[in-house]
């Protein structure tokens, strides 16, 4: 089987996970938005980006709390909710994983305590005031949280500056600092006016993770593969802001870099590999 067929197998399973999430959300009035490469794939390809092996959605903290409650009430035997509050050394977002499958990433190859089934990412979309100083403060605090979490899973930085910062973490009260920074990241989520949305708990740069509030104010149905998912009414404006000429295909090297899994199996549970 060639690589493209392998990716399609994974995508099919990912879509099963997403259809379950979508049904839970629609049945319970929960709002989410396809984002990043998933939104890009929906508009440019009518579904998955052909070489991509993940699917990402945004939820605000309040929508995520509603989702978590109904997910736990469902008590599914097929799907598992994996989140930062209960998983050690994990970044601030959640994954809905599928039992009976395998999706092992390089960074987690030795984590026997971690569910490593095929998944959908739920990214937490926060609010931040229009004030540039506060935005920068939340941005750098988010970067610290990201770097600290990455340092806990044997991440190897490429740049000299990041290597130096990573070494300096050994001399800081990181857990206490991360706890304080999280408070500010969540501080503005009840803001009703004069705010922007932000998502910086990843390697994303300042501008790329700061969004006009109108980008995520009106969810609409967006065709995706053989189903319909929720996305922004201004999805094309969001994509232009995020990617520029979003209809232009990336280089072959960039396509290869989009693959996350070092090992996957759509029919066997990850526990058969992580021993």
TrEMBL record:
<feature type="domain" description="LicD/FKTN/FKRP nucleotidyltransferase">
    <location>
        <begin position="25"/>
        <end position="244"/>
    </location>
</feature>
<dbReference type="InterPro" id="IPR052942">
    <property type="entry name" value="LPS_cholinephosphotransferase"/>
</dbReference>
<protein>
    <submittedName>
        <fullName>LICD family protein</fullName>
    </submittedName>
</protein>
<dbReference type="GO" id="GO:0009100">
    <property type="term" value="P:glycoprotein metabolic process"/>
</dbReference>
<dbReference type="Pfam" id="PF04991">
    <property type="entry name" value="LicD"/>
</dbReference>
<dbReference type="InterPro" id="IPR007074">
    <property type="entry name" value="LicD/FKTN/FKRP_NTP_transf"/>
</dbReference>
């Amino acid at each position: 089987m060639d690589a493209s067929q392998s990716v399609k197998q994974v995508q099919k399973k990912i879509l099963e996970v997403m259809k379950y999430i979508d049904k839970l959300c629609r049945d319970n009035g929960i709002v989410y938005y396809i984002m990043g490469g998933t939104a890009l794939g929906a508009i440019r390809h009518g579904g998955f980006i052909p070489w991509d092996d993940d699917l990402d959605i945004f939820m605000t903290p309040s929508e995520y709390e509603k989702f978590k409650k109904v997910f736990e009430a469902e008590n599914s035997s097929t799907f598992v909710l994996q989140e930062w509050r209960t998983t050690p050394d994990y970044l601030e977002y959640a994954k809905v994983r599928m039992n009976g499958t395998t999706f092992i990433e390089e960074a987690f190859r030795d984590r026997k305590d971690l569910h490593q089934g095929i998944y959908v990412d739920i990214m937490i979309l926060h609010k931040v005031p229009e004030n540039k100083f506060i935005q920068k403060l939340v941005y750098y605090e988010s970067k610290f949280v990201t770097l600290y979490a990455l340092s806990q899973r044997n991440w190897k930085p490429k740049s000299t500056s990041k290597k130096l910062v990573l070494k300096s973490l050994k001399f800081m009260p990181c857990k206490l600092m991360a706890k304080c920074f999280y408070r500010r990241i969540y501080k503005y989520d009840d803001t009703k006016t004069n705010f922007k949305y932000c998502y910086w708990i990843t390697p994303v740069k300042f501008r790329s993770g700061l969004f006009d509030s109108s980008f995520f104010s009106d969810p609409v149905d967006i065709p995706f593969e053989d189903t319909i998912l929720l996305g922004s009414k201004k999805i094309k404006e969001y994509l232009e802001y995020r990617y520029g000429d979003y209809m232009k295909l990336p280089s072959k090297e960039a396509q290869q870099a989009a693959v996350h899994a070092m090992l996957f199996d759509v029919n066997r549970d990850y526990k058969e590999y992580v021993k």
